[in-house]
Amino acid sequence: MAGKTEAFQLISISVALCRELLWIAERLETSDGVLLLDSLEWSISQADLILYTDASATGMGIWCPSFTQALYSPIITPDPHRIFFFEALAVVSALSFAVSFNRFHRIVIFTDNSNTVHMFNSLHATPDYNHLLITAMSCLLDSNIQLRVLHIPGAENVIADAVSRKKFKFVRTKVPNVQILEFTPPKLSHGSQTI
């Protein structure tokens, strides 16, 4: 709508935007209501699960101290210009991992990428990243989970960083009994399927 000055002037809507708007409408129709204050009124110490994520030029890593598990996913076509996408995809993948247990209510995911933290806390992204937010919000709404995505300095995100770089020997020196598994990122949703 940028640049429009007439109140009733028609605007063009792309198919992608139409899918996203329909997704919101469908979710609102089936929602029993979302209490935002409930999502904000809990501290890190009240989290049921804490995860750490990172992405490098060659892979994504998730570190789950509670299960002593590290999860790795290779990036098949590395592109240094898309590192933000993979940082955000690592968070969505960590959320998908947590949801799969069907027993956690409050989840904290730490990432050392401040743009990713901002994207998940503001629920605002450029159109190319909306499918990451739609997928994450669908997970949260379907499972009634509360999520906080928080920043951790890179120097403190040692295990997730090493996992993302496939430095498994280093990870084992820090956590000898770690279980290292490979994961496939979740299929991303582009919004409503009714179009």
TrEMBL record:
GO terms for molecular function: nucleic acid binding. This is Uncharacterized protein. CDD domains: RNase_HI_RT_DIRS1 (cd09275). InterPro entries: Hepadnavirus_pol/RT, RNaseH-like_sf, RNaseH_sf. It comes from Tetrapyrgos nigripes.
